[in-house]
Each structure stands twice: as C-alpha cells, then as structure tokens.
Design brief:
Helix content is 42%, strand content 24%. The chain is globular, with a radius of gyration of 22 Å. The model has no long low-confidence stretch (mean pLDDT 93).
C-alpha cells in the first residue's frame, strides 16, 4: 500500500501540517532543524506505532502541547481500497485506530504497510553487535513466514523460564529445568531453520541488486546460528550448563545468532569504507524489499534520512534510479536539493521544509 496523505499535529516543531503525497518518490529538503526528520518520524509513528528517534513521548510532543495526533490514508496500488490510520500519543493517552476502530496490537498495524527506515544508525547493521543483524533477519521473517511470530514468542518465553531457573541455582537434573531446556532446544531449532531458509532465499536478491549498485561485486552472507555448527542445540545446552549456571544465563541458542557480511571475500565492517558500507546496507535492504514483494505481493514504504551522507554524486544518482525502480513509495530527506538528479527520475515530488512548514516545491 501507499500513503496518499498525512496530517500531523503537535509533532515536535510540526504544529499542524497536512501533506498530500506522491505515489513514487517524495523528497523533503531544508536546513537542519527545519522539521524534515520529524516528518519522517510522523510517518514511522503512523505505520508502526513507534518513533525511530526517541521512545519518550514527552520528547516527541510539541512543547506545551498535551498530545500529538497523526492521521493518514493508505491506498492499495490498484486504488480500489483504502485504509485509514490514526494515532494519538500523550502523557495520558496512547490510542491507535485502523479504519476508525481501536487497535491494541502494533503487529496488526505493522502488517498493513511494511516499513523500513535508513538513518545514520542503520550503519550499525554492519558495525555493531549481532542484535542489529538478528533484527534485520527477523523483520523479514515477521512479514513472510506465518509461523515465525508465534515461534519467536514461544522461544523467548521458554528461554526466560530457563534463565530464571539458572538464576535460582537449579540442578541440571531437575525435571522442570530438563523440560524448559528441551523447549528451548525444540523452539530454537525451528527458529534457526526459519532464519537459515530466509537468508538462503535472500542471497539471490542480494546478488541481483549488487550487480546493479556495486558493479557485480559479490556480497556473501555467512549465518552463525548461535552454537557450534557441528552440534545440535540440545547437546550444546547440556554442555553449556556449568557456564550458564555460573553466569545465570543461557549462552547458546538463536538468541546469540549472527551473520557475517563479506564484500570481495573480506568482512565488510573492517575492510570497506563507510560509503561502501552504506551501499552494502542499501543492497541488503533492497533485497528484503524485493523478496517480500515476491513472497507476499506487498510493497514496502522506505524512509531515508539524510540521503547524501557519505555517498558521492555518481553513487547517489545510481542509487536513486534503483530506488525508483524497485520501490513503490520512498520518503527522503536532504539538506541539499541539488543532490537530487530530477532529470533521471520519472516519479519524484519535491517538498521544501522551513521552520516546521512543509510546502510542495
């Protein structure tokens, strides 16, 4: 689905704004602090229920206002059905509505319009801890694998129970400990199968996008399941008991999963420049977009904050052409409108943002 229009009230410095959006690429330009990123934040809040900048409502709501309100209208690509979304957040209010009906599950909202965001923090996908790479895999599985969410929730419940028993100094012979260890093993194996299969399928799309954006340079993803590859999880859990008991937590399993991204047969996080890392991240995310489109025939809405950071003019031009090719709707912020090569883009609308006011350029 595509976002046709959005109304924001009391969102940071956007006191009251209604914006009619383009079905393709939407570029918001203006000086730092003008409200560009706040507008992207509003789209993210509306379609996920969460901010990608701050989890504290008090820092999102306009100063001296009690609550923020965001309304939006989504339309499918055939334009024969609409979905209205509304979110209100305040010190005493937290309300979500889908087609005027109250909704409490953010997962329901997330499935309506899959959303991905690229900011400076996205660089952590390659540079920082494995939780960022697990999040990358699990976002895709949430949308394409029907059994993933329940398996993930059940696994984390079992892991929590096992860790609680470890914290109580439980014997490995205790029947409850044996039961929860078996549950962790069984559910962990299923979760790992989902992740392995997802990355195998994603590899084809990664190579396809890489051929266009990185001149056929090979990107390789090596999955690390979270325990020794030549051991089954139940055996690994049993062998790890003494270490787990000492630390009062479980050291092996899919909660420790990771993947290594290789660029020209070397680890991307230590070998390539930040600009190349940025392009690799775009390849990975665009691969997710194309994979989801093929699997469940849904479009992804992509938010990109400060597009031009760390990319030269040639790479930026090529990236924009590819974004327009594979995405039905993209929202981009930039401090420099001249970076956008309008002559090579067929569906791009520009907006100027100044002191919290957004106007079509």
């Amino acid at each position: 689905m595509q976002l046709q229009e959005i109304f924001c009230k009391n969102l940071r410095n956007l006191v009251e704004q209604k914006v009619v959006l383009n079905a393709g690429m939407n570029v918001f330009h203006g000086v730092n602090g003008s409200g560009k990123t706040s507008f992207l934040e509003g789209i993210h809040l509306l379609t996920t229920g969460k901010s990608f900048r701050n989890h504290l409502t008090s820092q999102i709501v306009t100063h001296d206002a009690d609550e923020l309100c965001i309304n939006g209208l989504l339309i499918d690509r055939d334009q024969d059905s609409h979905t209205s979304l509304a979110i209100i957040k305040g010190r005493k209010t937290n309300q979500l509505k889908i087609n005027q009906k109250k909704e409490t599950k953010l997962s329901t909202l997330a499935r309506i319009a899959p959303m991905l965001v690229i900011t400076q923090e996205t660089q952590k996908l390659l540079q920082d801890g494995p939780q960022w790479r697990r999040r990358f895999i699990d976002w895709g599985l949430f949308h394409v694998e029907q059994q993933f969410s329940n398996t993930w929730l059940d696994f984390n419940k079992a892991l929590k129970h096992r860790n609680r028993l470890l914290q109580n100094g439980i014997s490995k012979e205790d029947k409850h400990f044996i039961l929860w260890t078996e549950n962790v093993a069984n559910l962990g194996n299923q979760l790992t199968k989902f992740r392995q299969h997802y990355l195998i399928e994603l590899a084809e799309f990664i190579q396809h996008i890489s051929a266009e954006l990185l001149d056929n340079v090979k990107i390789e993803i090596i999955f690390k399941k979270g325990w020794k590859k030549d051991s089954d999880l139940k055996t690994a859990l049993i062998e790890s008991y003494s270490k787990d008991l000492l630390a009062k937590t479980t050291h092996v399993g899919p909660q420790r999963a990771d993947f290594i991204c290789k660029f020209q047969s070397r680890k991307a996080n230590g070998y390539v420049s930040r600009g190349q890392q940025k392009l690799i991240i775009y390849v990975l995310i665009l691969a997710q977009v194309c994979h989801l489109k093929q699997k469940i025939d849904k479009d992804v809405i992509l938010l990109i904050d400060e597009l031009g950071a760390e990319l030269d003019e040639s790479n930026l031009k090529q990236l924009l052409v590819i974004l327009e090719k594979y995405l039905s709707q993209t929202f981009i912020t930039t401090a420099n409108a001249k970076l956008i090569p309008m002559h090579v883009l067929t569906q791009c609308k520009m907006f100027h943002v100044e002191q919290g006011m957004i106007n079509a350029a």
